[in-house]
Each structure stands twice: as structure tokens, then as C-alpha cells.
Write a structure and sequence with these properties.
The complex is a heterodimer of chains A (306) and B (521).
Chain A lengths: L1 H27 L5 H6 L5 H11 L5 H14 L12 H36 L4 H15 L2 H15 L11 H30 L3 H8 L4 H38 L5 H10 L3 H29 L7
Helix pairs in contact in A: 1-12, 5-6, 5-8, 5-10, 6-8, 7-8, 7-10, 8-10, 10-11, 10-12, 11-12
Chain B lengths: L2 H21 L22 E6 L14 H10 L4 E3 L5 E3 L2 E6 L3 E6 L13 H12 L14 E8 L2 E6 L17 H7 L3 H4 L7 E7 L3 E6 L12 E6 L3 H9 L5 E2 L4 H9 L4 E15 L9 H10 L2 H8 L5 E2 L22 H10 L7 E7 L2 H15 L4 E7 L1 H9 L5 E6 L5 H9 L17 H12 L3 H18 L2 E13 L3 E2 L16 E2 L3
The chains are: A mainly alpha (306), B alpha+beta (521).
Chain lengths: 306, 521
């Protein structure tokens, strides 16, 4: 087991290295000279050249990449072009806010999505199933920023139940977590429903019922566990969407996390911050997918790691 | 490994992840919205401000963005400031003499920094010397190049010797004065995140992207502010900002987008304040290539565009049509220049005169922006009547700016903002010495008389004479239609009626907080 975990963690290294190359090349090939954009309207060509030299932008791309990745490995993630802050502490200080939001949204979408999906499958073709199917279709169709703004207008402005923005406690977390989790909840509902429908038609379920087991035992003990394997896969993949979605949702709710920070720094062409930010997103994505892989063994006893 | 142990490992990993996320969740101290009836007399008076973007740098010598500027205005006082009509007003300098050779400032006595040290001529000299030092990398360094030397006459008198006469320089003397002793003890970088100035509010804490907190400077030379504490909250989304104001989460919210103006005007619980903006929006042309090298074509475009309609459709009728590069509230604005009001007949005549009666094909470049996209589509529709076929190219800002600097355009739409002395905008945009990449004359406009007048206006100290020069420049620019001006900007700020004696300003936007108070507290 520990060998397996160790091997999986080792496998992350080439994956992250590959991601780092893509991130670096894409960001550095973006049109617009960061030195020109930083210096603004009064910059003379000589000042731009000087700043480019100071920022190391005159070196070939591969030299800059190796310098950057060398710094990443040794803990020196560089300095912001914009305000000269150190990249790593700036990103780490924003990570808890994003993690809090992403985890809360995952709990909402996975919790509600799984339960509703199971109910929808068990009560197939009833009014409940129809409502769930229509609701999940709606959930997938609504852009998360729109859900966020609607929640603000309803719960903050009209009902005055929750604060509209900021991060000052649990009340502030409710709306952004729902907004970020809505589409994921809809996806998980649909996957759970369809997987459950497949499983409950299997012979062993018929056997379980024939043995006279309670329906609840049949569904939750014998049908749900195998169905959860594919649901887990979706939950893992959903995390990537959540991190991407956090860019918009954190901006809408003025949530001080990595997503909003990424948006702001992209607008400012702050390359070191953007690259660090994307690398952290990629790392988190890989880590959560590792956890999901390990969870397979929990929900499905047939899975063995060696 | 057993399944139970397995489950335990996975659970621990998930819990660890969650604990990590919650570990730094200590929320900033923030009071709930204040109900005036429930306020105890000794409760601190806290004003919360929602603005669109966080500050980037709290050192006024380095900050150039609007958000940093308006926060720094409260931390640091400069030598001078200016009013809405751009007339210079004294601040730390109670008086000044301006000559062609030197600017002399007489400082107030007893102006204290937040740490209790007195502000003297040494601090003024240090502030401007660092800006002028290329190694300090101040972006506005070129503005201060006419300063040859800064001389300390005594503790309260400082003289800026000029290498050449430069009238607009007085407008660049508003930079907040930093304490030399702090910069030397702690290093210049310290002030970028730990501002210490002589302004009406003292710095407490900055949690980037979350909040900036400040408290009243009890020893402020102009009298301690009534408000005890101010918290700035960056909220980029317009709707969220508006809802925060409407639900009492903040007392000030700006900017207000045009689509929210009417709703907030109608709301009795909101005091919507309006100020003329500091900029304008325009269409620029490549003056070096046909068809826009011919001024008749540029004039025809001006006649062919219904600018009132653009303002009604894109800006909800809230802006005024522009006809000059100098904003109307400025002392240098000439209200009597030719305005080229909408006239399709005249447009057709001019196009025929220029030999383009069948029209032509052009590209119109814009950066990503909803209003600019809408304006472009209206232009495309209106100019099609004249056979002018516009291809709209919308680009990400960096790519757009690159193309503009490299002169890869036929036409583009852009704005010019933060106008103070007319020299700063007009000289850079219309003097033939200012072609890119050094200058902002991106259309390559060249007119000997305009160059001469702009040079004179820069070096003449007499305001009336300068006004005369700028009046003539505006007449020539209107006749040439070097730009087709679209509209003058306007600023809106939504304020809670609880906040009394506060007036939002075009410049030094929130400086009025020093005199404001919360009703019922």
C-alpha cells in the first residue's frame, strides 16, 4: 500500500513538470510585453529595455524556464512584477480561502447530488424522478456566475439573510459554495442516477431482493457502493472545474482566494504570480485525484493496490 | 494493509486537507452594519468603503493606479492638491512661489507624520529625490525631469530649481510626502506595504485582496477626523458592490456602472453623487495612410456619427458629447470650437470632396470591453450608409496595445483619463515629438503651429497666456479632427445617507472622509 502511494506521488513529478512546461510556454507567449505594460504611458524604449533586463526577459525562453523551475524546486518562486511581493507566501496565504470554498462546494454537490441521484433512480419515472431530472438539467445549464448573482440578489438584497461578499465566517461561505457547487451537483446527480439504474438491474441485486432483504439494505449496502466508484471519478474530475470556477465565483463574492488573485494578476500581466498560481492549481488537482484513486479501495473491496 | 487502516489513511488525508484550508481562516475583525439607533455613544465610528480593485502599492512615489492613489491620499499629504476646476490648493505647503527658474514651497509648521515626527523640508527633498533616482524605478520619473536640484532653504522652505521653465510641473507636486527617517531606517520597500505619512488617517493593516484598515490620525494638522476607522474592501463585481451598499454592508460604493444609476437615483436610502470625470473617449486614425491622411475624411466620419445616440445606447444617456481633448471643467477648456454635429449630408459632401464617394474598407481595433464593442457595432452600422465597411477587431489588451504602439491599425477606440494640467494629455497626444514608442501621439498627428503652441503653453508661467495657447490648440485640433471625440466621462459614487458631510470628488476622490461623520454616532 505505502509502496503504491509512494509510486503515485513519484508519478506526480513528471506530470507536474509537464504542466510546468505548458504553463510557462503559454504564459510567456501571450502577446504584450510585460515591461511595456508595467511601465505604462511614459516609458521610453531605453527604460523598457532596462526593465526587461532586470526581469530577465531578454534571455531565451528555455533559459528562463530552467531558471524558473529551478527556483520552484528550491522554494524561490520569484517576486511579483507588480508589487514585488514574494510569490510563494502570497499564494500560500490565499490557499486556505480557496480550499475552504472548494471543499464546501464539493461537500454540497457530492452530498446532495449523491442522495438525490439515488432517490431519482430508486423512484424512476415518478414525479420525483422527473423533478430531479429537470432540476439537474437546469443546474448544468446555469452559468455559475449567474447563479452567484441571483443568490446575492435573493438572499442578500431581498431576504437580507446572508452577507453579499467577503470572508468573515460561515455565513459568507454559503452563497459562494452553492454557486460554485450547483453545476457539479447536477452532474453528480445525473451520474449517480444512471449508474444506480444500471446496478439495480443486475442479477445480484435481484438475488438480494429474493433473499428478502430490506429494500433500504439492498439499495444502500449492495447497490450504492459499486455505483460510488464512477461517482468518485466524477467528483475528482469536478475539482478541476471547481478551481477554474473559483476564478469567477471568488470575483463575484469578493472572496480573497487564489481564483480571484489569479484573475487580478492575469489582468496585470504578473507572470511569476500567474505561473505560480496555475502550478498550485495543477498540484491541488493531482493531489485530489490521488485521494480519489485511494478512495476506490474504500468503496470497492475488489480494488487492490500493489 | 487492512481496509480499516486504509480508510483511516484516506480519512486523515481529507481531514488534513480541510484543516489546512481552515487553518488560516481567522477572519478579519469587522463590525456588522451599524443601525444608528443601536449605536452606543462611545462606539467607534467605522466607515466601510467598497471599491472595484485592491490597491497595488501603498508608497505614493511608486503607485500609479487609481485604487492605490485614492487610498494613499488618506495616508499621505502632498505639498499641494487641486479642486474640481483644477485650481491649485495648498496642503502641506501653505504658500508657494512659481517662477520660470524655480518653485519655492513654504511648509506649514507642526505637520506630524503618523509616528509623531515633524514633516520638514528634508522629507520633501527626500521624497522627490528618490522619485528622480532611476534606480528607484518610479514610473512617473519623466514628469520630474525638469527639476535640476532640490534645495533646502530652512526646515520649512524648500526650493526646486528647474533646468527649463515648466508650468505643468506644479500639478506633479501633489505626491504624498514620505518620512525620510522611516525610509532610511526600514528601507524604501517598507513603505510599499506599511505606509506612514502625514495624512488624515493612519495605516493599521492590509490584507491584500481582502481589506485595508486605517484609523484617524489624532494629530492631523488639519484637525483629527471625526471618523475613527475606515475599512476599504475591494469588490470587483458591480452587483455585489451595489448590494453591499443597499444592505448596509458598506457606506460608500464606487464606481457605479451606468446601468445602475437610475435605480440608485430612485432609491431614497442611497445618496448617489455625480462628478464630471477626468477623461474622454475617442476614435483615433492612422494619419500617415489613406484614407485618414486626408482631414476631409476624418471630418466626414465626425459628421457621420450620431454621438448622442452612442451615449444614449451605450452609456444610458449619462455622458456628454466631447469635442475637445481638454475636459470641460478645466480652466483651459475652449467651449467654442467647431463641434461637427451629426449631419449625414455634410459627411457625404466631404467624402465626395476627398474622392471617397463610394466609401472604403477599414479595420477598427478595440481592446476587450463591452462599451467599446457596442460603440464599434454602432459605428459599423452607421458608416455602412456611406459605403464605409468596418471590420471590427477586438483584442486582448496586451495584443491591442502592442498593435497601437507598432502602428498596426487604421482606426482604434481608446480613452484618456486622469487629466490634470492640459499639458500632460495634450502635449503627449498631439505634439509631433511624441510619436510612439516614446510618446502617445499614436495617430502620428503633425502640425507645426500646434507644436509651437504646446511648447509655449508648457514654458509660460502665466495662466491666462497658457489658456490662450490651449484655446488655439483646441481650435486647430477640432478643425483637423485629429481624433473624433466621442464623450466625456462622468463618475458616480453611491453613498449611504448615514454618512454626512462627505462629497465624492473627481480628484482626491475620498479625501472628504477627513471631514465626514456618521449620523447618530
Amino acid at each position: 500500500m505505502s509502496t503504491y502511494i509512494g509510486r503515485r506521488i513519484l508519478q506526480l513529478v513528471p506530470t507536474l513538470l509537464g504542466i510546468s512546461v505548458i504553463v510557462f510556454v503559454l504564459i510567456n507567449l501571450t502577446p504584450g510585453d510585460p515591461a511595456v505594460l508595467m511601465l505604462g504611458e511614459f516609458a521610453t524604449p531605453s527604460e523598457v529595455e532596462r526593465l526587461r533586463g532586470l526581469m530577465g526577459l531578454d534571455d531565451p525562453l528555455h533559459v528562463r524556464y530552467f531558471r524558473w523551475i529551478g527556483g520552484i524546486v528550491t522554494g524561490d518562486w520569484g517576486q511579483s512584477y507588480q508589487d514585488r511581493r514574494l510569490v510563494l507566501p502570497a499564494l500560500v496565504s490565499r490557499m486556505p480561502a480557496t480550499m475552504e470554498l472548494v471543499i464546501a462546494s464539493m461537500l454540497i454537490s457530492a452530498g446532495i447530488g449523491t442522495i438525490v441521484g439515488v432517490l431519482s433512480a430508486v423512484y424512476q419515472d415518478t414525479w420525483l424522478d422527473n423533478v430531479v431530472r429537470a432540476g439537474s438539467f437546469l443546474g448544468i445549464s446555469m452559468p455559475n456566475f449567474w447563479v452567484g448573482i441571483m443568490l446575492i440578489l435573493l438572499l442578500a438584497l431581498h431576504l437580507r439573510l446572508l452577507p453579499a461578499s467577503g470572508r468573515n465566517g460561515l455565513a459568507n461561505l454559503v452563497m459562494p459554495a452553492i454557486a460554485l457547487g450547483t453545476s457539479g451537483m447536477a452532474v453528480i446527480t445525473r451520474i449517480t442516477r444512471s449508474t444506480m439504474l444500471e446496478v439495480i438491474r443486475m442479477d445480484y441485486i435481484r438475488t438480494a431482493r429474493a433473499k428478502g432483504l430490506y429494500e433500504r439494505t439492498v439499495i444502500y449496502k449492495h447497490a450504492l457502493k459499486p455505483a460510488l466508484t464512477s461517482v468518485l471519478t466524477v467528483i475528482g474530475l469536478q475539482l478541476g472545474f471547481r478551481l477554474g470556477g473559483s476564478v469567477i465565483i471568488e470575483t463575484v463574492f469578493a472572496w480573497p482566494g487564489l481564483g480571484r488573485f489569479a484573475y487580478l494578476r492575469m489582468m496585470q500581466r504578473d507572470y511569476p504570480m500567474i505561473m505560480g498560481n496555475l502550478l498550485i492549481f495543477a498540484g491541488l488537482f493531482c493531489l485530489v485525484n490521488l485521494i480519489v484513486d485511494l478512495l476506490y479501495a474504500v468503496v470497492d473491496p475488489r480494488v487492490r493496490y500493489s | 494493509m487492512t481496509r480499516r487502516r486504509w480508510t483511516g489513511i484516506v480519512t486523515i488525508m481529507i481531514v488534513a486537507l480541510f484543516m489546512f484550508s481552515m487553518s488560516a481562516c481567522a477572519p478579519p475583525e469587522e463590525a456588522e452594519p451599524v443601525d444608528p439607533d443601536e449605536v452606543e455613544p462611545d462606539e467607534p465610528m467605522e466607515v466601510r468603503v467598497a471599491y472595484s480593485a485592491d490597491a497595488t502599492n501603498l508608497d505614493p512615489r511608486l503607485a500609479t493606479d487609481v485604487s492605490s492613489g485614492l487610498v494613499n491620499d488618506l495616508f499621505y499629504d502632498g505639498l499641494i492638491m487641486w479642486d474640481a476646476a483644477l485650481n491649485i490648493q495648498p496642503l502641506v505647503a501653505e504658500d508657494y512661489d512659481l517662477t520660470e527658474e524655480a518653485f519655492t514651497f513654504y511648509l506649514r509648521e507642526g505637520v506630524l507624520f503618523h509616528d509623531g515626527e515633524e514633516l520638514t523640508a528634508e522629507d520633501v527633498k527626500y521624497t522627490f529625490d528618490t522619485i528622480r533616482d532611476p534606480d528607484f524605478e518610479a514610473r512617473n520619473l519623466p514628469l520630474y525631469e525638469p527639476i535640476e536640484e532640490i534645495e533646502i532653504i530652512d526646515d520649512y522652505t524648500v526650493r526646486f530649481h528647474l533646468s527649463e521653465p515648466n508650468a505643468p510641473l506644479i500639478y506633479y507636486m501633489h505626491v504624498g510626502i514620505v518620512p525620510r527617517h522611516i525610509a532610511e531606517q526600514e528601507g524604501d520597500e517598507f513603505l510599499q506595504t506599511n505606509p506612514i505619512g502625514a495624512g488624515p488617517f493612519e495605516f493599521v493593516e492590509w490584507s491584500p485582496n481582502d481589506y485595508i484598515e486605517m484609523v484617524a490620525h489624532e494629530d492631523y494638522w488639519g484637525g483629527a477626523p471625526n471618523i475613527d476607522r475606515v475599512v476599504f474592501k475591494p469588490i470587483p463585481e458591480d452587483t455585489t458592490r451595489r448590494v453591499e451598499l443597499e444592505t448596509g454592508g458598506v457606506h460608500i460604493a464606487f464606481p457605479v456602472p451606468p446601468e445602475d444609476v437610475q435605480r440608485l437615483k430612485d432609491d431614497p436610502d442611497v445618496d448617489l453623487q455625480e462628478q464630471p470625470g477626468s477623461g474622454f473617449e475617442y476614435i483615433s486614425f492612422d494619419h500617415t495612410q489613406p484614407p485618414f491622411d486626408d482631414r476631409h475624411v476624418r471630418q466626414a466620419i465626425a459628421y457621420a456619427i450620431d454621438r448622442e445616440e452612442i451615449i444614449d445606447h451605450v452609456y444610458w444617456g449619462l455622458r456628454d458629447v466631447a469635442y475637445s481633448p481638454i475636459i470641460p471643467q478645466s480652466w483651459a477648456h475652449n467651449p467654442d470650437v467647431p463641434r461637427f454635429e451629426y449631419s449625414p449630408e455634410k459627411a457625404m459632401e466631404l467624402l465626395a470632396e476627398a474622392g471617397y464617394e463610394d466609401g472604403f474598407d477599414v479595420e477598427l481595433k478595440i481592446s476587450e470591453s463591452d462599451p467599446r464593442r457596442e460603440i464599434s457595432e454602432i459605428l459599423q452600422y452607421e458608416l455602412a450608409d456611406f459605403g464605409i465597411d468596418i471590420t471590427i477587431i477586438e483584442q486582448e489588451w496586451g495584443a491591442f496595445y502592442d498593435d497601437i504602439l507598432e502602428m498596426d491599425f487604421d482606426m482604434f477606440i481608446l480613452g484618456w483619463s486622469a487629466q490634470t494640467d492640459p499639458d500632460r494629455g495634450v502635449y503627449r497626444q498631439f505634439h509631433s515629438d511624441n510619436f510612439p514608442p516614446e510618446g502617445a501621439n499614436r495617430q502620428r498627428f503633425s502640425n507645426d503651429r500646434v507644436d509651437e503652441l504646446l511648447d509655449l503653453a508648457r514654458t509660460t508661467m502665466d495662466v491666462d497666456q497658457r489658456q490662450g495657447h490651449y484655446y488655439e490648440v483646441q481650435e486647430i485640433l477640432a478643425e483637423e479632427q485629429s481624433y473624433v471625440y466621442l464623450n466625456y466621462t462622468v463618475d458616480f459614487c453611491a453613498v449611504s445617507p448615514q454618512l454626512q458631510d462627505f462629497e465624492y470628488q473627481t480628484y482626491f476622490q475620498l479625501f472628504g472622509l477627513k471631514d465626514a461623520y456618521l449620523e447618530g454616532e
